[in-house]
Amino acid sequence: MELNAQHKPFSIKLWPPSQNTRQTLVERMTNNLTTKSIFTEKYGTLDKDEAEENAKRIEDVAFDTANLFYEKEPDGDGGSAVQLYAKECSKLLLEVLKRGPIKKDSGEDVATSDNSTAHSESIFDISKGQRAFIEADEAQELLKPLKEPGNSFTKICFSNRSFGVGAALVAQTILVSLKDQLKEVDLSDFIAGRPEAEALDVMNIFSAALEGSALKYLNLSDNALGEKGVRAFGALLKSQNCLEELYLMNDGISKEAAKAVSELIPSTEKLKVLHFHNNMTGDEGALAIAEVVKRSHFLEDFRCSSTRIGAEGGVALSDALENCAGMKKLDLRDNMFGVEGGVSLSKALTKHAELREIYLSYLNLEDEGAIAIVNALKDSAPHLEVLEMSGNDITADAVPAIAACIEAKQSLVKLILAENELKDEGATQLSKVLEGHIQLKEIDLSSNQISWEGAQKLALSVVEKAGFKFLNINGNFISNEGIDELMDIFKNSPDRLGPLDDNDPDGKDDDDDETEGSEDELESKMKNLAVDD
Fold first, then answer.
1. What is the dihedral of CA 458, 462, 468, 474, to 10 degrees?
2. CA of 155: how far to CAs of 161, 163, 267, 290, in Å?
3. CB contact at 8 A, 83 and 61
4. Which of 14, 147, 152, 402 is the most exposed place for a label (fewest CB within 10 A)?
5. Beta partners for 331?
6. Virtual CA dihedral for 176, 182, 188, 193, nearest 10 degrees?
7. pTM of the prediction?
8. Exposure of 427 in the CB half-sphere (CA atoms within 13 A)
9. What are the tens digits of pLDDT across the range 254-306?
């Protein structure tokens, strides 16, 4: 904890803890392991050396866990990281207390089991800071902790550092010695800026080093793999039989590369998470990915957004998804499924009773596709929490079906229908069902050609709702007077109403403009019309 004085405002920094604080915690845990307590009376006390060794390892593991959390989800002062740090220390300390002292034989410690705290999961992460190239000499120094005898690293992250061949060869020796204990490997964005030939050599080296490991998590995202890159990782991919999470995002995966993925991942029996975002897969590639999905019966989280998939690929993926009855999170945003793909997807959704989140924005569903999907969800997915269908040309004609679905989904907390054409009619229909919905926390109906009439009804339906957090109706056609009234409605909870800076008080529906133009033109011609006798 550091205080900044000298006539400046006081600021408190809770994370990271100082070295002195960390050492004090180690000493406290050592004391807990060596003194009399309800646990040591039951399970036995540790001698000082064994207690200190365990206390140091516990603190290291807890610090790594909390620091990773802080890096990914900083909360300003680090308070949440401190809480996690303390929680992890307490949990691991309790495990050691219950395990008791390790028996000794002929003056030597018996090796602890793989599940003991001494070998608890630990993370080795070099992704912090700016992206940088790594050559052999720096790799020797940077990867030194991985060479320490008896280390407990089961998770490694080499992301955001660009490995040359020399650095890869240094890593190869280390990874070969560790691969039996590794469970999670992150090699995302680890060849940036390298010439293609060198990048492929690096990938082949890492693939060979990790071949035969029993990974649960593998991230190869952000590497511009293409088919050559996928095949460079062939030895690693083909050897995996326990993989639960696979990430291949932003990898330049074309239809040929997608076929290679399907070919090189023969075992998907345990796969739960497959993320395939932002690739150039297209319909033919989608057919190959559909084969992977079809074999992944336990898939729970599937992301295939922004992959240029049209109706044919959408139908193939939808058919494959029927085999994934345990699906909990489905993200297919920013593709070109169209009505045909949407209707096909609706059939798969009837099988997804465990679905919690579904993201279907920008799929060109139109009313027919949207209605098919919400009708399917209404009769399945009883625990649905997030429904997103922005940018699908949905009109008020689809709202009765959407409203019926929302009414049936009492666990729904987030509803996103932005950039459609619901207008006042649709907003009014939705407001009636929203008013009686208990769990909804966030609603986005921005850019839906809604005027003050519909906006008022939406506002009144949620403003008094307990636990409600955010209403976004920006980008609509609300008058200036209407905006003033919205502010008044939310005067006691202004944070619940989103910004209105993109609202167009003079906005008109394009169709109305065309109609008015036609009428004006007709009137002009009628004035000049002469009647002959």
1. 20
2. 16, 18, 22, 29
3. no
4. 147
5. 303, 359
6. -20
7. 0.74
8. 32
9. 999 999 999 999 789 999 999 999 999 999 999 999 999 999 999 999 999 99
